[in-house]
Amino acid sequence: MASIPAEDSTVVDGQGARPSPKKRKRARSILSVIVNGREREDVVPDGMLLLDYLREVVGLTGTKQGCDGGECGACTVLVDDRPRLSCSTLAAQMEGRRVETVEGLAHGGRMSALQQAFHEKLGAQCGYCTPGMITTAEALLRRNPDPDRDEIKAALGGNLCRCTGYVKIVESVEAAAAARKVAP
Q1: What's the pLDDT at 68?
Q2: Domains along the sequence of the chain with CATH
Q3: C-alpha dihedral sign at 137, 143, 146, 152
Q4: Which of 50, 112, 119 is nearest to 83 (CA)?
Q5: 23-40, pLDDT tens digit by residue?
Q6: Is residue 135 a contact partner of residue 78, using CB atoms and an 8 Å limit?
Q7: Quick one: CA dihedral 151, 154, 156, 162, positive or negative?
Q8: If we measure between CA atoms, which residue out of 70, 130, 69, 58 comes closest to residue 94?
Q9: Is 21 helix (H, G, I), strand (E, B) or coil?
């Protein structure tokens, strides 16, 4: 990741040098990353969170900001096929990596088997936690295509839902696993 120097002006008075809040700009870097299969190169502030990068720079708003503290899982995305909380990850850490959001799981304008199962089995109520649930479940199904109920519950343990009580969510993941067995 190439760094772009920050402008930092100081004001010197008789008492010594002090940073001036005026004209100070944050350090920025050029980020090269693959988002949902597409290579991107963007200039981002060094302190920008992955969540903000995806929503504000890339324009993918499926990833949600829930607790803003890494406790609810609503912001989960896949980084190199592994679930990652985007609210506690710097965008700069994604240099050269693959990031997938819930939008990237659909292909050719059609929902993935997992997205379809959440729709059909009513795995989403208000829908706020759904993108994080789906990306976390997708990571599980990629590494274990035939999980049992306890494995599904354990994988989704870091994702909170305030609406469904989790039964429909687990049933959705089970249905998606079954559908993948049948699909070529």
Answers
A1: 80
A2: 26-105 (3.10.20.30), 113-182 (1.10.150.120)
A3: negative
A4: 50
A5: 456 789 999 999 999 999
A6: yes
A7: positive
A8: 58
A9: coil
> Looking up tokens 């519950």, which residue turns up?
153
Look at residue 12 and give its three-state secondary structure.
strand
Q: How confident is the model at residue 11 (pLDDT cuts 50, 70, 90)?
A: very low
| Amino acid identity for residue 177 in this structure | A
- CA–CA separation, 74 and 132 (whole Å): 4
Amino acid at position 148, single letter = D
**Amino acid, res. 115:** Q
How far is residue 141's CA from residue 135's CA, in Å, rounded to a whole number? 10
Has this prediction a pTM greater than 0.90? no
Structure tokens at 122: 């009513």
